[in-house]
Design goal:
The protein is of the alpha+beta class. It has a single domain, classed as Creatine Amidinohydrolase (Alpha-Beta Complex). It is 28% helix and 25% strand. The chain has 4 helices and 15 strands. It has a 5-stranded antiparallel beta sheet with strand order 8-7-9-14-15. Strands 1, 2, 4 and 5 form a 4-stranded antiparallel beta sheet that branches. Strands 3-12-11 form a 3-stranded antiparallel beta sheet, with no helix packed on it. Helix 1 runs antiparallel to helix 2. The radius of gyration is 17 Å and the shape is globular.
């Protein structure tokens, strides 16, 4: 494992990237309403990318090449759902919108699960727990802690509310590449794993299932769904570790040591 620590100047550039990604994601979340297709959302994201003169982190990624600039994951889809013209949001759905860009050569990666119209209490509770689990993880993103502390905070919080965390997919370091070392699992033991140092930049992204944690990848080789077809929610922020505390680069209100 070779971790690439970022300088203060690099982190400032990554903050610029994070603010752009956050602005576009906010526009997408506002546009996600009944009757809107996931293809429509992808088109909005493409226009945002063009407006800000940034590069998609997702389009063409890996093999088979990812065909869109967004991942749109509805209900039982955990992550990596591909936007489609015939996939229309309905009242009561939940959708995970995952978005990443490169700005001045540095990546920002962020995701949010949005409730469409009037959702059931069960879905509302799941989304709220996944969002709060991310906050529990962010609180542990501090110099001297270990990666296992982050994962343990996320896992214990989700499981205390009766949910499971996905173990097949994890968070990651980020920088000049979208995925860098180290891996950042959403599970773990306290005081286990790599020690967290200043200059580390990571994407923390809990995926929380209403049922079991097992995953099935569909025939398109991208779309990952819960094996038991239970609902799933996903949140993600890009976070820089500073001597003053965590800086959530993809949250406009955040400052070093004050996550916002």
């Amino acid at each position: 494992m070779r971790i690439i620590y970022k300088s203060p100047d690099e982190i400032r550039v990554m903050r610029e990237s994070g603010l752009i990604a956050a602005e576009i994601l906010e526009e997408l979340c506002q546009a996600a309403k009944p009757g809107v297709s996931t293809w429509d959302l992808d088109q909005i994201a493409r226009r945002g990318i063009e407006k800000h003169k940034v590069k998609s982190a997702f389009l063409g990624y890996a093999s088979p090449p990812y065909p869109a600039v967004l991942c749109t994951s509805i209900n039982e889809v955990i992550v990596h759902g591909i936007p489609r013209k015939n996939e229309i949001l309905k009242d009561g759905d939940i959708i995970g919108i995952d978005f990443g860009i490169f700005h001045k050569g540095y990546c920002a990666d962020t995701a949010r699960t949005v409730m469409i119209g009037q959702v059931s209490q069960e879905k509302m509770d799941l989304v709220t727990t996944a969002r709060d689990a991310l906050e529990k993880g962010i609180e542990l993103c501090r110099v001297g802690n270990r990666l296992g502390d982050i994962g343990h905070a996320i896992q214990s919080y989700a499981e205390s509310h009766g949910y499971s965390v996905v173990t097949q997919f994890v968070g990651h370091g980020t920088g000049r590449q979208m995925h860098e070392d180290p891996q950042v699992p959403n599970y773990g033991k306290p005081n286990d794993g790599k020690r967290i140092k200043s200059g580390l930049v990571i994407a923390v992204e809990p995926m929380v299932n209403a049922g079991a944690p097992e995953v099935e990848v569909l025939d398109d080789n991208w779309t990952a769904v819960t094996k038991d077809r239970s609902m799933s929610a996903h949140f993600e922020h890009t976070i820089a570790i500073t001597d003053d505390g965590p800086w959530v680069l993809t949250r406009p209100s955040s400052t070093p040591g004050n996550v916002g």
